[in-house]
Amino acid sequence: RLVADLIRGKNVNEAMNLLTFTRKRAARKIQKLLKSAIANAEENHKILDVDDLVVKTIFVDEGVTWKRTMPRARGMATLIRKRTSHITLILDEKQ
Hints:
Elements: H1 2-7, H2 12-20, H3 25-44, E1 53-71, E2 77-93
Antiparallel strand pairs: 1-2
């Protein structure tokens, strides 16, 4: 969510530059999502000028949590939670 707040409202070129130099693990995943959204805008919506695209909305919601057990000493086990998330990104053309 920190990385999402960083690029909200920015131009897509500026957002790509910010994500390239951000040293967070989530930045790579959001950068991949942004590249995909730009390609979809060009292909599906016939947007010719990518420089006019702006990150209108981006939010990260909590997804399903996978639960696994890890054996511990004296016959016990601890619960390992593998968390997932849902990322939603909406691009819009600059007016």
